[in-house]
Each structure stands twice: as structure tokens, then as C-alpha cells.
């Protein structure tokens, strides 16, 4: 006999086991949920009452769920459910009773489109063509070269390894955390896929940073340096959303919201910490200069430069009277 519906007891995003629901003479089914062995859906959860809830499943892809008096109640999405509450439980949504999560699958509900498994995403065809080793090599050459250019002659070799170890350990830790999250919710551990995505964002963000600095010098566009200051947080938020597609495919809105919240928190903290500086979200000077032949901006005369510097004198004098936290220093 074909079941009318299935009640999945969830473990992360995977069904631990399913309870079939068969229609009665009226075309529906009435079930009770709880820890008691007399219940139709038995939950091994100490936070669930003996008979925690009752539900009525009809031929339409929705059930009427009624919570009975209990200590912990339940949740439907972000809405708390208390004893005596009756709600409509739509197919393919999750209800939490105590610490147990239940999903309703109904025979009358449309079947969601087929999606590739995490393994297919993790082992994309480009991954078999050496993309991950190539990204690792690019990072080694890039950050090692930057350290070599900044170092003085005779610098010990161990000093060249410090930025490489910092970037490498950070990427490994980030990828490992997301792989563990994927293991919890997807029962898979695609560490290589998370590491590859991490290195992609690291390389692209470093290239964008260099490109913006070069354009700021070539065209005398200092505003681009502010954009460069935002690259790190933007890249981190983008990477979190991208990693969340592997680890939490059914919670994309949560991941995007958390990434946006993190970026806004960074902006607020940066605004407060930069209270005493001349320009927010901009370095005080350009760290590297390109050959003068690359300049496209018109030349300025020395007299014009001195006039502009003269106009800055009152503002700089006012800032000089403040301590590092932006407060007026006492004249005692």
C-alpha cells in the first residue's frame, strides 16, 4: 500500500529514519508523537514529553499539528510553539519538538528538482586537472615574492616562511572548519573542495588589491584605496557564502544573513576605530609606487602642491591636539 506521507526524523540535513503514514477510511491519518512506545512516531529524546503532539495528515500536502502540554514545546521555523498551539505544517518543512527535528514529506507535494551531490560539487572536473596544486603554487610564489621584495638583503630564510605559514595555516583552518560543518549536516568531509574555494578567494583578493593600488597610482584616484581596504571583509563574506553552498545548502538565507551582519559589524568597528585619522577606510599613504612613466594623471606644479598643503594646516593642527582615541588633550 502506498504511504500517504513520511515523517522523517532528522539528523542534521539527513533523515535518520522515516515513519510511513497510511491513509485511513476518510483519506487522512491521525498520529501522535512523543517518547511513549504507544506513539506512532517514537522519539528517543529526553526533552520530549511522553505524548508531545498530535497531528492530522490529509490528502493535501499539509498537516495540522497540535502541541500538547509539555515543558519544552517546539518550534516551526523561527516561531515558538507552546502547549495547546495548533499550526499548519507544510510539506518539506521542519518542525522541532524538544531537541528532535521532524520533516513532513507528502505524496501530494511536488518533488523538488534533482541536485548534484556534494561529492560531484567537491570533485568538479577542474579539480582533476591540477587546480588545487596550481593554486597552492601561486600562493607560495605570490606571498613569498612579496616578502622577498619587502625584506632587506641578508634576511634569514625563516623570515620568508612566516607569511606563507600564516596564510597557509589560516586557509587550512578555515577549510577544516567548513569541512566539519559539512560533515555535521551532510555526512561528508569535502576538505579539498573547501580548501580550493578558500585559495581561489585568497588569490583573487590579492590580485584585486594589487590592481586597485596600481590604478590608484596610475590615475591618481585615492578613492580606490578605500575600496582596497574593503576587499578583505568583502572577500571573507563572499567566501563564507560560497562555502555555505557546500556545507548548508538548505540554509542559504541564514548564511547570507550572517555574512552581511559580519560585514556591517566590521564597518561599524572600523568607523569607531578610525575616529582619530584623517580618512576612514584608507591607508595613510601608498605602500608601493610604480615607475613614473606609468602615470596617466596630469602633472601638478610645486606651487599648487604647496597651496593645497597650506589649506590642510588648520585641520592637521586640530587633529594634532587630540590623543590617539580622538579626544582633546588637556593643555596642562
UniProtKB/TrEMBL annotation:
The chain crosses the membrane at residues 126-144, 164-185, 197-217, 254-272. Keywords: Membrane, Transmembrane, Transmembrane helix. Gene3D superfamilies: 2.60.200.20. InterPro entries: FHA_dom, SMAD_FHA_dom_sf, YscD_cytoplasmic_dom. Residues 31-81 form the FHA domain. The keyword Transmembrane helix applies. PROSITE patterns: FHA_DOMAIN. This is FHA domain-containing protein. It comes from Inhella gelatinilytica. The lineage of its organism: Bacteria, Pseudomonadati, Pseudomonadota, Betaproteobacteria, Burkholderiales.
Amino acid at each position: 500500500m502506498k504511504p500517504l506521507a513520511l515523517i522523517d526524523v532528522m539528523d542534521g540535513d539527513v533523515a535518520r529514519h522515516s515513519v510511513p503514514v497510511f491513509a485511513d477510511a476518510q483519506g487522512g491519518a491521525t498520529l501522535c508523537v512523543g517518547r511513549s512506545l504507544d506513539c506512532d512516531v517514537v522519539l528517543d529524546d529526553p526533552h520530549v514529553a511522553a505524548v508531545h503532539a498530535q497531528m492530522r495528515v490529509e490528502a493535501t500536502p499539509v498537516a495540522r499539528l497540535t502541541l500538547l502540554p509539555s515543558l519544552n514545546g517546539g518550534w516551526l521555523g523561527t516561531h515558538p510553539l507552546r502547549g495547546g498551539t495548533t499550526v499548519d505544517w507544510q510539506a518539506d518543512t521542519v518542525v522541532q519538538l524538544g531537541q528532535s527535528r521532524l520533516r513532513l514529506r507528502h505524496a501530494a507535494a511536488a518533488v523538488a528538482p534533482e541536485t548534484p551531490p556534494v561529492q560531484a560539487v567537491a570533485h568538479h572536473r577542474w579539480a582533476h586537472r591540477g587546480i588545487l596544486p596550481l593554486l597552492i603554487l601561486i600562493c607560495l610564489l605570490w606571498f613569498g615574492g612579496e616578502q622577498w621584495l619587502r625584506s632587506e638583503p641578508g634576511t634569514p630564510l625563516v623570515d620568508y616562511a612566516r607569511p606563507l605559514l600564516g596564510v597557509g595555516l589560516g586557509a587550512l583552518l578555515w577549510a577544516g572548519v567548513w569541512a566539519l560543518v559539512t560533515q555535521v549536516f551532510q555526512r561528508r568531509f569535502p576538505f579539498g573542495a573547501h580548501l580550493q574555494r578558500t585559495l581561489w578567494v585568497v588569490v583573487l583578493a590579492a590580485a584585486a588589491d594589487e590592481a586597485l593600488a596600481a590604478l590608484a597610482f596610475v590615475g591618481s584616484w585615492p578613492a580606490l584605496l578605500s575600496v582596497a581596504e574593503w576587499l578583505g571583509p568583502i572577500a571573507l563574506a563572499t567566501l563564507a557564502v560560497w562555502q555555505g553552498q557546500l556545507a548548508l545548502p538548505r540554509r542559504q538565507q541564514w548564511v547570507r544573513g550572517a555574512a552581511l551582519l559580519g560585514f556591517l559589524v566590521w564597518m561599524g568597528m572600523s568607523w569607531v576605530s578610525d575616529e582619530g585619522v584623517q580618512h576612514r577606510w584608507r591607508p595613510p599613504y601608498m605602500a608601493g609606487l610604480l615607475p613614473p612613466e606609468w602615470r596617466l594623471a596630469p602633472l601638478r606644479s610645486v606651487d599648487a602642491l604647496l597651496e593645497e598643503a597650506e589649506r590642510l594646516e588648520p585641520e592637521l593642527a586640530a587633529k594634532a591636539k587630540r590623543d590617539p582615541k580622538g579626544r582633546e588633550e588637556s593643555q596642562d
